[in-house]
Amino acid sequence: MTVSYLVRRLLVFFLIVWVAASINFIIPRLAPGDPVAAMVGRMSQQGASVEGSAQIIENYRKQFGLDDPLPVQYVKYLWALMRFDLGPSLSNFPTPVSDIIARALPWTIGLLVIATLIAFTLGSLFGALLVWRATPRAAQLLFPPLMVFAAIPYYLLAIVLLYLLAFQLGWLPTGGTARIGASGGWSLDTIVDVALHSILPALSIVLSAVGGWMLGMRAMMVSVIGSDYLTLAEAKGLTQRRIFMRYAVRNAILPQVTGLAISLGTIVSGALLVEVIFSYPGVGFLLYRAIQNADYTLIQGITFMLVLAVGIVILVLDLAYPLLDPRITYQGR
Asked: Which residues of the chain have pLDDT under 50?
């Protein structure tokens, strides 16, 4: 890898982040209504005293810089992002947006990283076994039904699982992250309780994703089977298990790794509808509440974090490709 290529990739990365940040600034401001006026309106509906509401709105607009011309707001916005300052939340003033996201992010990462890795592992393995000639016939008949779930949106699966496993059978909790009255902390009971509350949302994500991973891996394995290096490995007398894992799967899985990296980059945005259905306090549920409350700064903070995470993942993956597959080179040959 040359230095010039690395510099080009970094420039492209910063260009993408800048364009995404600019779109992130513009879109919320195209929405109708005034977020500050909406916030004062909610305060009045909740019984809070809002005497002199016009003055309150004016002061809040000045506090958030919304009374400045758009070009001035844009420059201030970019300067704040360069310092990783996401500003205070409109609906939870004066709590910083970064603090609100930091409280929700561990829940989302804990749920989605585990669910994504499980779906990727099972889907890739089942998809490869589906077309491998040494796979038992019974297993080849059991795998295809899992692909049906790929056509079902994960939030519909979440509703079905919630109805069957929580309301009808009562095997699992209906939502949240812990039972009412739980003491918290890092005790074994708390960890088990959190794990039980995470099974339903994780299961809905795994079931809806595993079929897609299977289809992708199956397509790549079809292109690999019959290759000369597999024939040579068989001629050397290698076991079927070693040929399958070291030669077939290893050469077919690279596109899957790309998809996995992008999926892991997008998890910081959360699984919005699943988190809403199960009242799971992750970033997706936080984004839903921010949209409800027209919280510009919180929406911008979450979406910018998503853009930054995906950009970093793609950059790292692009630079790591030659390590994953020696056939890939950036030397111009």
From this structure: 333
